[in-house]
Amino acid sequence: MLRVHDLTRRFGRLTALDRVSFEVAEATIHGLIGPNGSGKTTFFNLATGFLQPNAGKVFWGDREVTGLAPHHISRLGIARTFQNTSNFANLTLRDNLVVASRNRVQTSVLHRMLHLGSARSEEADHGRTADAILERFGIGHLAHTIAADLPGGTQKILGVAIALATGPRLLMLDEPLAGLNPAEKVQLMDILRSIRAEGLTLLLIEHDMKAIMQACDRITVLSYGTLLAEGSPAEISRDPATIKAYLGTEAA
Ligand SMILES: Nc1ncnc2c1ncn2[C@@H]1O[C@H](COP(=O)(O)OP(=O)(O)OP(=O)(O)O)[C@@H](O)[C@H]1O
Ligand SMILES: [Mg+2]
């Protein structure tokens, strides 16, 4: 569903991403791994319109979306989280999710026309969506807490919940497990697997190799901006180039 062809991005003399091509298949969890600075976040920024490529193309289904603005790409059904920043409006968890739900992709103009005059029930729908997601992420008891007052790990979980509340078809998560405690990690990975089971697609940047190997259907490995390997977790975990560049030092 998301496909990139020869995607290239330079920063001055550094080529952060060098002719990278791969495809994320629908209803899979696809891992994007590689050493620090290998171009993973740059890939996310290019695919979601936060950066423009120097060369190459991005396709969403049959449609070329190269260079579209972030808000345009998100309206097509791609949601993402950011590696370091969690920037929440000064709202409760529940209200953050209600706002995200109001931005749902599915609430099309047609949808609104069919529900003419039922703005109140639409608002109730957003409330129900928010409550369901709070429960699903195990943060229902925090519904009325101001998001900025949460501990870091819970803020990261909320970031994923907010992305999901926008009703995407593809969820791109940049190191969602960083800063979570072991119990939170297990819980979030269970949630991600259940999201995939419902037909959503996930593209996951993550350094936690245990989680990656357990959850992913397919893994793409970057090294110095180039595509080093791609395959199933079993294939990647015994790929000599990947072990040399990454697994040997970080996870073996
Ligand atoms: N806006 C920018 N300006 C200049 N250089 C950048 C910019 N963004 C990224 N880079 C450089 O591009 C390279 C790839 O960075 P990127 O953030 O994509 O790596 P990453 O794989 O996400 O690493 P990490 O695992 O540490 O998050 C790095 O050398 C980085 O310093
Ligand atoms: Mg990164």
Number of DSSP-assigned strands:
10
Strand order of the largest sheet: 6-7-8-3-9-10
Strand residues, percent? 15-25%
Could you say which overall geometry the principal axes of the C-alpha atoms support? globular
- What ranges have pLDDT less than 50 throughout 5 or more consecutive residues? none
Remind me, CATH topology of the largest domain? Rossmann fold
Structure description:
With 252 residues, the protein is an alpha/beta fold. The chain folds into 2 domains: 2-77 and 169-250, P-loop containing nucleotide triphosphate hydrolases (Rossmann fold, 3-Layer(aba) Sandwich); 89-159. The protein contains 10 helices and 10 strands. The strands form 2 sheets. The protein has a 6-stranded mixed beta sheet, with helices on both faces. A hairpin with a 2-residue loop joins β9 (218-223) and β10 (226-231). Bound molecules: adenosine-5'-triphosphate and magnesium ion. Adenosine-5'-triphosphate is lined by residues 11, 14, 16, 34, 36-42, 83. Magnesium ion binds at residues 40-41, 83, 174.
Quick gist of this model?
The protein has 252 residues and is of the alpha/beta class.
Explain the layout of strands and helices:
Blueprint lengths: L1 E10 L2 E11 L4 E5 L6 H8 L7 E6 L2 E2 L5 H6 L2 E3 L12 H10 L6 H6 L4 H18 L15 H14 L4 E5 L7 H16 L3 E5 L3 H7 L2 E6 L2 E6 L1 H5 L2 H11 L2
Parallel strand pairs: 3-8, 3-9, 6-7, 7-8
Antiparallel strand pairs: 1-2, 1-4, 4-5, 9-10
Helix pairs in contact: 3-5, 3-6
